[in-house]
Amino acid sequence: MMKTMECQAAVLVEYGSPLEIQTVSIPATLEPNALLVRTRMATVCGTDVHLCAGHAMASTSVGKSLPIVAGHEAVGEIVDINDTEYDSVGNRLAVGDRVIWTHGFCGSCRQCTIEGSPTLCERRRGYMSAGPDIYPHLNGTFAEYGYVFPTSGRVLVPSNVSDAVASAASCALRTMVHAFDRLGRIDGRQSVIIQGVGPLGLFAVALARQSGASSITVIGGPSARLALAREWGADNVIDISDVPSAEERTDLTRLLTGGRGADIVIEASGATTAFTEGLAMLARGGRYVLVGQLHANSIPVNPSQIVVKNATIVGSVSGAVNHYARGLDFLSRNADRYDWDRMISSVRPFAKINDAIASMAGEGEIKPAVSF
Ligand SMILES: [Zn+2]
Ligand SMILES: [Zn+2]
User: Fold this and answer.
1) Which one of 72, 136, 262, 332 has the minimum C-beta count within 10 Å?
2) Structural domains in the chain (count)
3) Could you tell me the distance, in angstroms and rounded to a whole number, from the CA of residue 317 to the centre of ligand 1?
């Protein structure tokens, strides 16, 4: 390999200020089982917007102290493979292959092994948790090069999945594949409501359609996103700008579900009020999975609703390599049926990363990408 010893990375130095493009070191030596990749594409997430703005989040240790190398979604091309022969699911790896990768899950704590829940790893080594001065310097994905931690699961990207979509799969899709696992089986009798129509909600539509759900109703906006949700399999859409009242939206969903409410509700909006609304929309005996709620706001809830409905309420956070691998497989197998790139709302050069984040904050985007 041709060793470039430095590269450009976007660093969050101060909350509320634009990311600084800094020259950072590329690690000269890799830890055993680590990979060095050249970033091909990175994508911007709602989490990046909140993190940069300094909004308190209920999640993990991310961004608790600055500076950090920003970004957590990317696809990279392997430039230094060290002693690694295979990805985490048995595909042979070589220099030049495209991969996506997980945060570092230790593989030797109670959650990783006994509970089988690596996303709850007690010794998680996460991205966006360290600045460029701390080895291996490439501690986030908004950088020309990326470092796959030794304990990060990594998966070869199928040839019919584009760079930008693979990058989106490394966050939104793996999160939704995990959430569907947490929900359990969906069968043809069951109706689904999806709250939110960002990347999480859109992937939820496609996964729910493939699961055989009897009907899918999506609540969110703006209208362009809802149109895409229809194309990807939503039977009904409710635009929150047309129906701004939560009560009226709940009444509408009753009409659409024969008065019963939805058997499955998937929260993918992140809106503070979504839980109260989703609970009201849930049928008796229904299941509700919460995915988008990562804010620090409290809301009033009457827990009696959970009791009288015999409801199952489930939380689901992030995803493990299993979910990355099955997400990529889902994209690849359904590449003829879905134009996954429709989700990628813009592609800018890396130098315009702050424009991509600002544009995401304005909700004019679904999933902005930056190319390298
Ligand atoms: Zn993300
Ligand atoms: Zn662990």
Assistant:
1) 332
2) 2
3) 11
Q: Are residues 143 and 218 in the same domain?
A: no
* DSSP structure class, residue 133: T
pLDDT tops 80 at residue 63? no
**Whole-number mean pLDDT of the chain?**
95
| C-alpha of residue 126 to centroid of ligand 2, in Å | 12
Per-residue pLDDT for 315 more than 60? yes
Rounded distance between C-alpha atoms, residue 73 and residue 230, angstroms: 26
d(CA 102, ligand 2 centre) in Å: 13
Beta-carbon neighbours within 5 Å of ion ligand 2:
106, 109, 112, 121
The ligand minimizing its distance to the Cα of 48 is 1
pTM equals 0.96
DSSP 156: E
Domain holding 39: CATH number?
3.90.180.10
What distance in angstroms lies between residue 74's CA and the mean position of ligand 1's atoms?
Answer: 10
The pLDDT of 210-232, averaged and rounded, is 96
Q: Looking at the domain assignment, is residue 253 inside a domain?
A: yes
Closest ligand by atom to 104 CA: 2
pLDDT digits 0-9 by tens, 237-266: 999 999 999 999 999 999 999 999 999 999
Residue 324, in any domain of the structure? no
Amino acid at 265: V
Q: 359 to each of 44, 69, 101, 321, 367, how far by Cα in Å?
A: 10, 20, 26, 30, 10
* Predicted pLDDT at 82: 86
DSSP assignments along 318-349, one per residue: S--HHHHHHHHHHHHHTTTT--GGGGEEEEEE
* 284 belongs to a structural domain: yes
Contact 32, 83 (CB under 8 A): yes
Q: How confident is the model at residue 58 (pLDDT cuts 50, 70, 90)?
A: low
Question: What is the distance in A from the centroid of ligand 1 to the CA of 44?
Answer: 7
CA–centroid distance, 172 to ligand 1, in Å, is 6
Residue 332, in any domain of the structure: no
Looking at the chain, the whole-number percentage of residues with pLDDT higher than 70 is: 97
Query: Do 116 and 203 belong to one domain?
Result: no
Instruction: Check whether residue 14 and residue 119 sit in a common domain.
Output: yes
Mean pLDDT (whole number) for 181-194: 96
| Domain match, 61 and 114 both | yes
What whole-number percentage of the chain has pLDDT above 90? 92
Ligand nearest to the CA of 360: 1
Q: Are residues 181 and 151 in the same domain?
A: no
